[in-house]
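Task: sequence design from structure.
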């Protein structure tokens, strides 16, 4: 496992969820803003006590400085670094479980809010793992964690050096790769069954040319309005729910 540098979790939902679900060795410090709602403070102190953690009550400006103006809502946790999964180990595990995994590959998503939103939808739709590149893309950060509303703890994320080489390796292991483009098969006709990988391109440039050449099929989202593009996380959400409908149809 590899990891980022020291980081923060902040915000009521993300902070409480982390306190509830993570072991004490993942949490270094708990900072609570002076004067927060009593019921909220009691919940924080109760959860911290269960894990043997000390809560430090501090003024709002200290929390503002810690998260550089982020919306902390009165709570900040300093935590051990976010961990990345080993892709080879994940693939071996899926084979041992004799399952047909659904993977999501993100080609240089740069906005941490987009990555967090995508992780949230990935968790909701049963994505087995996410693959991101080590360079020219956001990694797992506190902003990603907060936007994911806890999904960062449930969806494995693997970072790789080269998405093209990773795609070639996945194809050798029997995976089908589906890309997104302005021209392609209408996503409503997409059959995502089997060992599948959905590849989402960069917010502005889409999928890089060399990676696009690895795709088995291109998918497109038809648009009948005046704006001919969607936010990356919104487009991913639409496609992931089509995947869920394809793999788990109503009976």
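Answer:
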């Amino acid at each position: 496992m590899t990891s980022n540098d020291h980081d923060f979790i902040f915000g009521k939902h993300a902070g409480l969820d982390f306190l509830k679900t993570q072991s004490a060795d993942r949490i270094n410090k708990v900072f609570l803003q002076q004067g927060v709602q009593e019921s909220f403070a009691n919940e924080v102190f109760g959860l911290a006590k269960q894990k043997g953690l000390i809560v430090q009550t501090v003024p709002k400006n200290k929390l503002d400085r810690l998260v550089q103006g982020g919306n902390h809502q009165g709570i900040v946790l300093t935590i051990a670094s976010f961990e990345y999964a080993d892709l080879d180990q994940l693939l071996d595990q899926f084979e041992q479980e004799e399952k047909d995994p659904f993977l999501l590959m993100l080609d240089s998503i740069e906005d941490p809010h987009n990555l967090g939103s995508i992780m949230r939808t990935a968790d909701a739709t049963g994505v087995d793992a996410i693959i991101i590149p080590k360079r020219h893309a956001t990694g797992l950060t506190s902003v990603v964690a907060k936007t994911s509303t806890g999904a960062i703890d449930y969806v494995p994320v693997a970072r790789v050096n080269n998405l093209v080489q990773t795609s070639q390796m996945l194809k050798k292991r029997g995976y089908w790769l589906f890309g997104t483009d302005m021209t392609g098969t209408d996503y409503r006709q997409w059959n995502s069954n089997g060992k599948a990988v959905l590849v989402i391109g960069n917010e502005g440039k889409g999928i890089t040319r060399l990676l696009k050449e690895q795709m088995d099929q291109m998918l497109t989202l038809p648009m009948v309005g005046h704006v001919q593009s969607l936010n990356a996380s919104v487009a991913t959400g639409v496609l992931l729910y089509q995947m869920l409908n394809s793999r788990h149809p109503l009976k």
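Residues 1-5 have pLDDT under 50 and may be disordered.
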